[in-house]
Amino acid sequence: MWLLLPLAGVALATRPAEAIPAFAAQTGQACTDCHVGGFGPELTPLGRAFKIGGYTQRGGEGWASYVPLSLMIQTSFTNTASDQNPPPQHYAPNNNFSLDQISGFIGGGIGEHTGGLMQFTWTDVDNTAHVDNMDLRPYTTTFNLGGKELRIGTTLNNAPTVQDPYNSTFVWGFPFIASAIAPTPVGNPILAGGFTGNAIGYTIYAWWNNALYLEGGAYSTFSPWLLARFGNDYGIGSTTSPAPYLRAAYEWQWGESAAWIGTIFMHADVDPPTGIPYQTTGALGTDHYTDYAFDAGYQLLNHGPHSVTVQGIFTHENQNLKGTAGLTGVASTGANLNQFRANVSYWYKNTYGFTVGWQKTWGPANAALYAVAGVPSANDKPDNNAVIIEADWVPFGKDSSLWAPFMNLKLGVQYTAYTQFNGGTSNYDGLGTRANDNNTLLLFAWLIF
């Protein structure tokens, strides 16, 4: 089980907001200008331009526009269809209140060419603190190319897609919040979290005519010394060489609409974890992962009462797990994994929101990953299927809001229904557990100021 724990819960993991009041104060604009629903992290075209521009845009007035600090608090109540056995550490088998996280942010621009976002998080769920999302833009500038603007920039980040401007990808994709203590499926492609918080990515990007976005670079995992100080551990393992990452997307904007299509490629050669913190080994072989993803989205943002977003992403992963197979003592080394995610959201006056999401993962049996002692998949398959429904209320975030731009709040209710979980519908773990035993009701409060 120790090999799977780093990936468990990635698909439905809690993701803190990228919409911080420091950005609103710096730009002098309301949260609704850059974020669908006035809270985030879902970006509008203007929000994407601010991010690609290195978080450097200004326009705010007064001392607050130069203070790049924000604070976030998330708390929630979780109910699962059946009691958890064993219960989450430090919690009852069901009906739990939790302080999911307290995060501090440093975010904004330094001059015309440099900016970034860094998040530091403490969670009461397991009483740990760590460096969370990091997206630094050391240098960005613009040129004239063929009468159109070409922006060139660089990034330093700690997770593939944390720097991506589109919410159809992973780090900032729906669901934007999830229970920190409910069971979640184990099967996920590496793009969905295998290198989240445990690697450094160096990328260069180009954005032409506010339409064509190209990015390329590589990721290398941190040393054990750095991991211990950042409060993170290896996910799928440690890279044996820099893992290449490529991204391309094209966006159309017309009237009050925007649409985009894109693709992502990533390949990683890694030594798997041994089960001892901060330790991996290639003594029995190296694992190889290759991911191909295709995403698309559409937004109707009419600056009136109605906003609509439709977006999705499909990922195919090829796996050769010689190292993991050697450590677990199983014969299976090669397999593949597929995952599809999609969601549709509607917002009324950027105050009342309703979103329906769908996540499906499937692939052949892989004993190297799913037959490890303690992993709840009796048939060695990663298959899972979930529908997520969420309703939100954001009373602030507008120009006329109380305490704007210094505070924002989202209150929500979310329900996740599983028809498949860790390879099965019923008795998926050999202990009689059904997929819908993991259905989760989440009530949450999300405050940022």
Automatic annotation (TrEMBL):
Keywords: Signal
Superkingdom, taxonomy of origin: Bacteria
Signal sequence annotation: 1-19
Protein name: Cytochrome C
Organism: Rhodopila globiformis
